[in-house]
UniProtKB/TrEMBL annotation:
It comes from Deinandra increscens subsp. villosa. Pfam families: EMP70. Coiled coil: none annotated. Keywords: Endosome, Golgi apparatus, Membrane, Signal, Transmembrane, Transmembrane helix. The chain crosses the membrane at residues 12-30, 294-316, 360-387, 393-418, 430-455, 467-491, 517-543, 549-577, 589-609, 621-654. GO terms for biological process: protein localization to membrane. Belongs to the nonaspanin (TM9SF) (TC 9.A.2) family. The keyword Membrane applies. It is a multi-pass membrane protein. It is found in: Endosome membrane; Golgi apparatus membrane. It comes from the Eukaryota. This is Transmembrane 9 superfamily member. PANTHER family: TRANSMEMBRANE 9 SUPERFAMILY MEMBER, TRANSMEMBRANE 9 SUPERFAMILY PROTEIN.
């Protein structure tokens, strides 16, 4: 059967890749997976990530602003593929902490601000840019109050602009609170387990104990303080500074203006906590409206299961009745029935006629198998806890690696379908190349256009040319050969045989009172009903800087989406066959693939009503460009589910009918 033959090889390949990736994960150190214990007075340096804003979505380097720089110069941290693509730029910083030492420290005084620096600071402040700091792989957390509600944020603002004045004030004093948990272990000694090093765990004698302190929380309270430049000029970096209370009076705050020298200071307080190291991310992963999230998901699941059950029961009864009535008749009665009745039985000589643009259909099915396989494996791994939020960029890196290696499944599925339709293997190489280039080509074109916009704005989110060449090399040397290998394997297996012969002359399709595309477009509403709630949380995670870590819910929604896409496509295919429309191939694909239209429209709705603060055409184009990539990927994957299921259904339906 079509479904079993196409997916059997894909499942085998997925199993091999899961084993490979599992071995990879066990064999190498994942950042943030091992705890780092510190002794009293051990030095710990914070790191800084790119400046980000929910208004512009254009990240910039931390040191693009006149901040204090560390001794020895700026050094970039090693970043993985996902971090680079997300625009992260993690650098070292001069912020030094000494374990369990509460202190108030002077950092530096800047030279007099130039006109360009003043303009840049004011612009970043008005655009609500946030400074993102990291300590022991934990982002700095800030609490604020709005309308009487306590709101949790990561990072702190560059500055603030009071409503009743034209002045802008810079954040130049930070009050850090570091939460530590005292650790005592027996029989195990942990050596060199920093986030940049290899985790080495060695067993010690029973009498030996490894003890120290783990960092389990990192909070910051920012404020603006105006210092006396003459007094500050006498201090050196890390000299003791007097502790200050954050002033409420604007006259005591540091205004941003030309020729002004700005002094930066910070305080740190270490607080003992009962929170253990494995639970330190819980505070970051708490989602607002959790109860609403739970009830919305459960309500959606119940509604979708109820509707899908009704559709499935009606469908089974209808088809079973038609088949039973048809098979109980003798040959003469069947011939008479064929002359008298209309419906799907009359298109028996045309139902497997080659569709228009059959090569393009095979290309899209191949890419859909590749994308769907990537999504399934990624979400399963994330639901099992492999994609830790401490491992920045791991999710995107894993998706890219899986996509590259699943090229074999794409080539196999596309070429197998092509041979089934054409009846020959001729041209399988060009088809495999088309499969390897189709979706990556779309993504490459969109990313290139968006990258020019980012380059024009000097954003750190722009993909470097070196990374472009690396991505192209990975695609050319991994994905393309594996796609060709999958295509070659598909030419070695026996093709699926149609249960009926195709007539030489095509049957005329009766006129419809309404266009068929309207029914196809409307069919996407049911799969969208399973997606829109999770889509809201995913978009909030991407564009509002919130953590998304309910992959268990996402896995359930994905399974539900697969079932609904399959049912919707099969029902729509049956409806078209019943009105003697034998051109079901593309309709079956777009019946479930049309959910991407609603996803893209919902993204526009989210832009208009949820991202009201998004400013400038560049930010809107970036948002729409990335949304378009997501919509295309959803169309290919969901369309593939619907088409393969419909193909299996049509093959089963007509193989069950007695045909001379």
């Amino acid at each position: 059967m079509a479904l079993s033959l196409i997916w059997r090889g894909t499942y085998l390949l997925l199993f091999i890749y899961v084993i490979f990736v599992s071995h990879f994960c066990n064999g190498f150190y994942l950042p943030g997976s091992y705890m780092h214990t510190y002794s009293t007075r051990d030095e710990i340096f914070a790191k800084v990530n790119s400046l980000t804003s929910i208004e512009t979505e254009l990240p910039y380097s931390y040191y693009s602003l006149p901040y204090c720089q560390p001794y020895g110069g700026i050094k970039k941290s090693a970043e993985n593929l996902g971090e680079l693509l997300m625009g992260d730029q993690i650098d070292n910083s001069p912020y030094r902490f000494r374990m369990n030492v509460n202190e108030s420290v002077f950092l530096c005084t800047t030279p007099p601000l130039t006109e360009h620096e003043v303009k840049l600071l004011k612009q970043r402040t008005h655009d609500l840019y946030q400074v993102n700091m990291i300590l022991d792989n934990l982002p700095a957390m800030r609490f604020a109050y709005q309308n009487g509600h306590k709101i949790q944020w990561t990072g702190f603002p560059v500055g603030y602009a009071p409503p009743n004045t034209d002045d802008v004030y810079i954040i130049n004093h930070l009050k850090f609170k570091v939460f530590v948990h005292e650790y005592e272990g027996s029989g195990v000694q942990i050596l060199g387990t920093g986030e940049e090093g290899m985790g080495i765990i060695s067993t010690a004698d029973d009498e030996k104990k490894a003890s120290g302190y783990e960092i389990v929380g990192f909070e910051v309270s920012p404020c603006s303080v105006k210092y006396d430049p003459e007094k500050m000029a006498k201090l050196h970096q890390y000299d003791e500074a007097s502790s200050v209370d954050c002033p409420l009076d604007l006259e005591k705050s540091q205004v941003i203006k030309e020729q002004e020298k700005i002094s930066f200071t910070y305080e740190v307080e270490f607080v003992k906590s009962d929170t253990k190291w494995p639970s330190r991310w819980d505070a970051y992963l708490k989602m607002e409206g959790a109860r609403v999230h739970w009830f919305s998901i459960l309500n959606s699941l119940m509604v979708i299961f109820f509707l899908a059950g009704i559709v499935f029961v009606i469908f089974l009864r209808t088809v079973r009745r038609d088949l039973t009535r048809y098979e109980e008749l003798d040959k003469e009665s069947q011939a008479q029935m064929n002359e008298e009745l209309s419906g799907w039985k009359l298109v028996v000589g045309d139902v497997f006629r080659e569709p228009n643009h059959s090569k393009l259909l095979c290309v899209m099915i191949g890419d859909g198998v590749q994308i769907m396989g990537m999504a399934v494996v990624t979400i399963i791994f994330a639901a099992l806890g492999f994609m830790s939020p401490a491992s920045r960029g791991m999710l995107l890196t894993g998706m890219i690696i899986l996509y590259l290696f699943l090229g074999t499944g794409a080539g196999y599925a596309g070429v197998y379908l092509y041979r089934t339709i054409k009846g020959t293997s001729e041209g399988w190489r060009s088809l495999s190349w088309s499969i390897a280039c189709f979706f990556p080509g779309i993504v490459f074109v969109i990313l290139t256009v968006l990258n020019f916009l980012l380059w024009g704005n000097n954003s750190s989110g722009a993909i470097p040319l070196s990374l472009y060449f690396k991505l192209i090399s990975l695609w050319f040397f991994i994905s393309v050969p594996l796609t060709l290998l999958g295509g070659y394997l598909a030419t070695r297996v026996e093709t699926l045989q149609y249960p009926v012969r195709t007539n030489q002359i095509a049957r005329e399709i009766p006129a419809r009172t309404y266009p068929s595309w309207l029914l196809v477009l409307g069919a996407g509403t049911l799969p969208f009903g399973t997606l829109f709630i999770e889509l809201f949380f995913i978009l909030s995670s991407i564009w509002l800087g919130r953590f998304y870590y309910v992959f268990g819910f996402l896995l359930v929604v994905l399974c539900l989406l697969v079932v609904v896409c399959a049912e919707v496509s099969v029902v729509l295919t049956y409806m078209h066959l019943c009105v003697e429309d034998w051109q079901w191939w593309w309709k079956a694909f777009y019946a479930s693939g049309s959910v991407s239209v609603y996803v893209f429209l919902y993204s526009i709705n989210y832009l208009v009503f949820e991202l009201k603060s998004l400013s400038g055409p560049v930010s809107a184009v970036l948002y729409l460009g990335y949304s378009l990539i997501i919509a295309v990927a959803i169309m290919l994957s969901t369309g593939t589910i619907g088409f393969v299921t419909s193909f299996y259904f049509v093959h089963y339906l007509f193989s069950s009918v007695k045909i001379d």
